[in-house]
Amino acid sequence: MAEIFTVMKWPLIACLLLPGILVYLGLHIVQREVIFVDLALAQVASLGACVSLLLGHEAADTQTYIWSFGFTLIGAAIFAVTRMRHHSRVPQEALIGITYVVAAAAGILLLSRTAEGNEELRRTLIGDVLLVSPHDVLKTFFIYLGIGAVHFVFRKKFMMISFEPERAEAEGMSVRWWDFLFYALFGLVVTSFVQIGGVLLVFSYLIVPAVCANLLASRVAALLALGWGIATVSGVAGLYAAYRFDLPTGAAIICVLGAVLLLCGLAAYFKKEKTI
Amino acid sequence: MKNIILTLLAALLFAVNAQAKLNVVATTVDLASIAKEIGGDKITLATLAKPTEDPHFVDAKPSFIVKLNHADVVIEGGAELEIGWLPALLDQSRNEKIVAGAPGHVNCSKGVPLLDVPATLDRSRGDIHAAGNPHFAISPVNGKIIAQNIADAFAENDPANAEAYRANLKIFTTALDAKLAAWQQALAPFKGRSIVAYHDSWPYFARDFGLKIELFLEPKPGIPPSPAHLAEVILKMKEENARVIIVDPYLNRRTADTVAREAGATVVPVTQFPGGLKGTEGGYIQLEDYLVNSLAAALAEKK
After folding, report:
1. Distance from C-alpha of A102 to C-alpha of B247, rounded to nearest angstrom
2. B85 within a domain of the structure (yes/no)
C-alpha cells in the first residue's frame, strides 16, 4: 500500500489541488455554451509557441511562454468580440471550431518551416499527469490561486456576464472588456493545465463535472459543491484504477469521469420520474 | 515435524536466492534481449517500451515507476534516444541506485562511435540529436559493445556472479561474431545498393553491411513528408536504382506504399526491436537474421 503513494503522490496532489478552478470555470463555459473554447484557446497558445520556435527560441524559454500567452490574449479578444451578436445567424460555436482548426493547421505549417519536430513541442506543451514534477504542480497552484483571487473579488461581475449577459448590458457593464478578461484568465488556466495533464484531461475536468452538476442541481453553490465533489472523487478513483490495473493515467481519470456522468444522468432521470 | 522444518528451510533458501537476483529494467526490448543473454538466470528482467512503440515516444504507465523504484540496474540506450520520457520517470521513481551517473545506470552508448554527430546545433535541420544518431543498437558490431557495457555493469553491481556474466558475454560475443560473418556474406552481393528508409535510424546497419541508406521519406527527422520532398525522393530512387523501402511498424506505411508504387519499388517492413514483427520474437540474433534475410530477398528480387 505504501508503494501506491510513492508512485502516485504528486499526481494525487495535482488532482486534488488543481481541478478546482477548472470545475468553477467549467460552470461558466457550460452556461455560455462555448464548450470547445478551451481546446481552441489551448491550440492558439501552442500556435504562439510554434511562432517562438520559428524565431529561434527553445521550447522551454521564457520567450516561448510570452509568445504563447500573447497568442492566448489574441484568442481571448476574438472570443470576446464575437459574443453577443443577436442579429447574426452565425453561432459562436462555429467560430470557436474554426479558430481551433485554423490554429492547428497553421501550427503544422509553421512546424514544417522551422523544422523543429513534434518531439520537443509535444514534450513541453502536452503533459502526462503521471509524470508531473512537484515544481510544476506548485507553480500552477500559485498561478491558480492568483486567478482564483481575481475571480473571487469580481465574482458578481463574472457571474453576471456569464449567466445574465442581457442584464449586465442593461446595467451598463462593458461586457466586451469583462469577457476579454474572462477569456484571458481562462486561457492561462487552460494552457498551464495542458502542460500538466494534456488536452483531453483539461476538457474533461472543465466540462464533465459542470454537466453532472447541472443535471442534478441549479443553485450556484450546489453546482459548485457537486462539481468539486465529482471532480475529486473521479480523480482519486481514476488514479487508483490507473495504479491497480496499470493504465495510462490521464485516460483512466477521463473514463471514470465519463462513467460518473452516466450515473448522474440516470440519477437525474429517476429524480424527474419521481417529481412527476 | 522434521519434514515441515526442512520444507520451511528450503522455502527460506529459495526466497534468499530469489532476492539475490539482480533486478534489471531495460528501456527497450533489444537491450533487454542482450541483457538476458548476459544475465541468464542470475537476473530478473523487465522492459518498459513495447517492441512496436517508437522509442522516442513511449506512453508512461504507473507500473514503469514501480519497476524502476525496485530496480538495481536500469539499462538505457542513451544518446538521447529516450530523452522524451525516461528522465521524468527516473525522477519519479526516487531510486538512488539508478540515477544518471550511479553504478546501477547503464548507458549502452558508452564506447559506441556515434555517427552523424552534428558540427553545429541548428534548429533548421529537424529533430537532430546533439550526441549523434541514437539508433546504434541495431548494428551487430555495436551489439557487442552494448553486451560489454551490460556485462561490466552486472559484474560491478553483483560481484558474486561476475564470473557467470563474463562467461555469458563470451558465449554471446562468439555467437554474434560467427553470425556476423554469415550476415555479411549474405548481403555481400548487394554492396553499395541504395535503400530508402522512412526515418534515419539505419546508418549503423548500413555501415556494417556496406549498404547505402541515405534517402529518407521524411524531409528532416521528425517532420512529416511533404509532396515536393516525396517527388524528389522518387526521382532520386530512379536515378540510384533504389528499389527497396524499409519502414518500422510505428511509422506511416501508406506513405511508403505510395512512393513504392510510383518508383516501382517494394516495401519491406523492418523493426529495430525483437518482437516488433512476427518472426523476431526470439531475441537480438533472430532479429538480425530476419533483417538480413528479408533485405537480401527483396534486393535479389528487385535487381
Report:
1. 31
2. yes
The alpha-carbon radius of gyration of chain B (Å, integer) is 21
Task: Give per-residue pLDDT as tens, B262-288.
Answer: 999 999 999 999 999 999 999 999 999
Q: Encode burial over A76-89: b for 16+ CB neighbours within 10 A, e otherwise.
A: bebbbebbbeeeee
Q: Which residue of A has its CA nearest to B222?
A: A117
> Does one domain contain both B8 and B129?
yes
B187's grid cell = 548481403
Which of B53, B66, B81 to mutate: most A Cβ within 10 Å? B66
Q: Which of A119, A247, A249 sits opposite B84 (nearest CB)?
A: A119
B198 and B93 within one domain: no
Q: For the domain that residue B256 is a member of, what is the CATH number?
A: 3.40.50.1980
* Distinct helix (H) and strand (E) counts, chain B: 10, 8
Residues B206, B234 share a domain: yes
Q: How many domains does chain B have?
A: 2
Question: What is this structure's pTM?
Answer: 0.81
In this structure, the strands spanning B212-216 and B244-247 are unpaired
Cβ atoms of A111 and B223 closer than 8 Å: yes
Contact call for A122 and B84, based on CB within 8 A: yes
Q: What's residue A275's pLDDT?
A: 58
Structural domains of chain A sorted by starting position, each given as residue range(s) with its CATH number in brackets: 2-275 (1.10.3470.10)
B60 touching chain A per CB within 8 A: yes
Q: Own/partner pairs for A217-224, CB < 8 Å, 24+ apart?
A: A220/A27, A220/A159, A223/A27, A224/A23, A224/A24, A224/A27
Same domain, B159 and B41: yes
The answer to whether residue B123 neighbours chain A at the CB level (below 8 Å) is yes
**Which amino acid appears at position B240 of this protein?**
E
Residue-range definition of the domain harbouring residue B202: 191-270
The reply to whether residue B88 touches residue A131, judged by beta carbons under 8 angstroms, is yes
Contacts of B57 (CB under 8 A, 6+ apart): A119, A122, B84, B85
Cell of B17: 536466492
How many contacts (CB atoms, under 8 Å) link A and B?
75
User: Higher model confidence: residue A61 or residue B42?
Assistant: B42
Concatenating the DSSP letter of every residue in A40-89 gives HHHHHHHHHHHHHHHTT--TTSHHHHHHHHHHHHHHHHHHHHTS--TT-S
What is the rounded CA–CA span in Å between residue A55 and residue A219? 49
In angstroms, the CA A49 to CA B22 distance is 45
Digit-coded pLDDT (tens) for B109-156: 999 999 988 765 555 555 556 778 999 999 999 999 999 999 999 999
Question: Could you tell me how far CA B169 lies from the centroid of its own chain?
Answer: 18
Asked if residue B166 and residue B243 are part of one domain, the reply reads no
